Amino acid sequence: MAVHVAIVGASAPTEAQAASAEAVGRALGTAGAVVITGGGGGVMAAAARGAAENGARVVAILPGSDRTAANPWSEIVLATGMGELRNGLIVRAADVVIAVGGAYGTLSEIALALSAGTAVIGLDTWAIDGVQMAAGPDDAVARALALAGEG
For a pLDDT cut of 90, what percent of the chain falls above it? Predict the structure, then answer.
């Protein structure tokens, strides 16, 4: 079964964060992973684009009830109607979480993942206990795959 990796992060990323998210998505697509995002813009869209363009299945777990709100690179769209509570679904569906940038929503996803015992790899994000900070996109993906037993 394919490794499931959630990519979480900034809704309004810097150019560098968006480029990192897209590179992470590309590498995960090449590795045959399933990529899970919140389905919106920013880091979520960049990661989904990189993943979809490189063969990954992209799952979007939306906060609202409208499936058409997902970014166009999302293949499987789950409209939860749960608002921010869907953050828990995103991290619980993943074997590993990669966080790129982000504000309090990302911090909540990181905390939920760590609380559940799910590894979190960080790129330019919250440097808190338990987050394994990566040197760049390739390092983040290598760590994620290794932690999921695929690397």
Answer: 97
Question: Rounded to an integer, what distance in angstroms lies between the CA atom of residue 60 and that of residue 138?
Answer: 23
**Both structure tokens of 106:** 């990302």
Q: How many CB atoms lie within 10 A of CB 119?
A: 19
pLDDT band at 151 (very low <50, low <70, confident <90, very high): low
Tracing tokens 């993906």 back to the chain, one arrives at 141
Percent of the chain with pLDDT over 70: 99
Contact criterion met (CB below 8 Å) for 22 and 46: yes
Half-sphere exposure of 50 (CA within 13 A, CB side): 25
Q: Is 102 left (phi over 0), alpha (psi -120 to 50) or beta?
A: left
Q: Return the structure tokens found at 121.
A: 């790899």
User: DSSP string of 13-40?
Assistant: --HHHHHHHHHHHHHHHHHT-EEEE-SS
76: three-class secondary structure by DSSP? strand
In a 13 Å sphere around the CA of 9, the CA atoms on its Cβ side amount to 34
> Containing H/E element for 99?
strand 96-100
Per residue in 24-40, pLDDT tens?
Answer: 999 999 999 999 999 99
